[in-house]
Amino acid sequence: MTIRELPPPRGVLERVVALALEEDLGRGDITTEACVPPGTRGEAMVRARKPLVVCGLDVIREVYRQVDPDVEVHDRSRDGHHVVEGQAVAHIVGRAMSILGGERVALNFAQRLSGIATLTRRYVEALPPESAARITDTRKTTPGLRALERYAVRCGGAHNHREDLSSAVLIKDNHIAAAGGVSAAIERARRHAPHTSRIECEVDGLGQLEEALAAGAEVVLLDNFEDSSLAEAVAIVAGRALVEVSGSVSLDRVPEIVKAGVDVISVGALTHSAPAADLGLDWNDPA
Known about the structure:
Layout: H1 10-25, H2 30-35, E1 41-48, E2 52-53, H3 57-67, E3 72-75, E4 82-83, E5 88-95, H4 96-126, E6 134-136, H5 146-155, E7 169-171, H6 173-179, H7 182-192, E8 199-203, H8 206-214, E9 219-223, H9 227-237, E10 242-246, H10 254-259, E11 264-266, H11 269-272, E12 279-283
Helix pairs in contact: 1-3, 1-4, 3-4, 4-5, 6-7, 8-9
């Protein structure tokens, strides 16, 4: 199993699902309790209503494990796989009350994660075939759901940026302002950061770029640079640092950004603006 295939940590999955079930099912399901006899059993299929990249099968399983351990969830696809309209991604069998009680929570997670994976796949496919550049996410994730959303990004074929504030040095505009300038921020970072951590510095123009390179930045983040300035910036770097681009990165810009010779394209939209994928739960008619 590669790092891209690693699922979210088990403890995180259990906690976020428990919180979601408490929110939706904590006081019971009066509609199902009123309509469905307690002993009724049934089965249902989770199906794609439109083409999408699947993500969240483990979350569906965890939802039903917590609702009712006797409910069986059988995969009909795999996370990271593209499915077509009407294709089943999971088959659920068990007590009808349990299946219906967990339906909305299971679908909410799967729709959110599959939406991220689907949008991410579009960005990855926008990279020219010969490109060595990588698409990454950012920390612009839903609070509490970062581990799941970062997994969805990996299922879409992209990479993850830093996990949290402790995992990498990334000097941004407000750090620069608070520290008294680009050079001051980088110099202090070099003195205090772990020796195993690269120093990345965000720059908003060619002047700051020159200053960051002179101060020894190992990664430079070109923030909201116009396409016309990217090639010049990469030429100035001349291999002295890795070059990351972020800010207003639309799908149609990706080929132009890559053409400039950058190493990393970070896209906040992968997690903060991905539309939910269209998945639904269809009750199977009795045989």
